[in-house]
Design brief:
Oligomer: single chain
Largest sheet: 7 strands, mixed
Order of helices and strands: EHEEEEHEHEHEHHEEHEHEEH
Low-confidence stretches: none
Helix content: 25-40%
Structural class: alpha/beta
CATH class of the largest domain: Alpha Beta
Length: 334
């Protein structure tokens, strides 16, 4: 791999694409050359990087000649069409969609957990689902200490997980409610302002949604733990940024709260914010735009043997997407 690689961002004008660009700059990633790719309607827009404006060009089948690493965040259909083309052109793709996550030949990576899996790539590496990544930042260190069997979880997912139009929808609806106007909706099936929707992604015949099953399926692959089980209810909440997850985890071995806290204090990419007496616990308001996730509200579970409850919050545009992708690119350079 070139030490100053030619980097492309596919979906550069989207919410995650913009964060990818900012993250490359903030982390001083050694970008030799930068190519910004998007659909025809975004061509000609400019985005700032390291003090210069870079013009967005159209994504085509010929876009990847000479590119070393392409960070994809333009949706599953674009990834399915263009990632294999990019890989065939000699580029390594880090894909943020769900298109390749469960393919055996594609590593699914959270660098703090399974960085060595990066080496097994055949041209495509997958970024996990945002709630999976944020949850595992706290769950995996506990798994290493106590051996996780299963979790029950409820998510509190910000609207920016859906995209820029959802952010606009929440802002517009808040104003409409405050002004006692008719509430209009385009993105979600129901009003999201002052409401919560127990519905993220499409429903499966089991009654779970696709998003809810990602925690179990992706968690097994990332943690190399085929027996891991997760029963999850995913909920969209009227928060602009940062997902939170309430987790009840059951372990193989007896859990010590003191050891759990020590393990999490030493975990990379994670801050323990856990002082209920002083009303200190993780909140999306304070994890937004931060690289590290936060964990708190830790307590022994009163309904599970060897159980631990915890609450984890993290910026899903960063650790759940852009930051994780850039960290994977950093692993490729190593």
């Amino acid at each position: 791999m070139n030490r100053t690689p030619h980097i492309a961002i596919v979906g550069a004008t989207g919410a995650v694409g913009i964060e990818m660009l900012k993250t490359l700059e903030k982390r001083h990633f050694p970008v030799g050359k930068l190519t910004l790719l998007a659909s025809a309607r975004s061509v000609g827009k400019t985005l700032p990087f390291k003090g210069a404006d870079h013009t967005v060009t159209e994504l085509t089948r010929d876009s990847f000649q000479g590119i070393d690493i392409a960070l994809f965040s333009a949706g599953g259909s674009i990834s399915r069409e263009f990632a294999p083309i990019a890989a065939a052109a000699g580029c390594v793709v880090v894909d943020n969609s769900s298109a390749f996550r469960m393919e055996d030949s594609v590593p699914l990576v959270v660098p703090e957990i399974n960085a060595s899996d990066v080496r097994k790539h055949r041209g495509i590496i997958a970024n996990p689902n945002c709630t999976t990544a944020i949850t595992l930042m706290a769950l995996y260190p506990l798994h290493k200490a106590f051996g996780v069997k299963r979790i029950f979880a409820a998510t509190y997912q910000a609207v920016s997980g859906t995209g820029a139009k959802a952010i606009e929808e929440l802002a517009r609806q808040v104003e409409q409610v405050v002004r006692k106007q008719l509430v209009t909706r385009d993105v979600y099936p129901h009003q999201i302002a002052f409401n919560v929707l127990p519905h993220v992604d499409s429903f499966l015949p089991t009654g779970y949604t696709k998003e809810e099953m990602k925690m179990e399926n992706e968690g097994r692959k990332i943690m190399h733990h085929p027996g891991f089980r997760a029963s999850v209810t995913c909920v969209r909440v009227p928060v602009y940024r940062s997902h939170s997850v309430a987790v009840n985890a059951e372990f193989e071995r007896p859990v010590s709260l003191a050891i759990a806290q020590e393990v999490l204090k030493n975990a990379p990419g994670l801050d323990v914010v856990d002082d209920p007496e002083n009303k200190q616990y993780p909140m999306p308001l304070f994890t937004s735009e931060k690289y590290n996730c936060e964990v708190g509200r830790m307590r022994l579970d009163c309904a599970l043997d060897n159980g631990l409850c915890f609450w984890v919050s993290g910026d899903q545009l960063l650790k759940g997407a852009a930051l994780n992708a850039v960290q994977i690119a950093e692993e490729l350079l190593r």
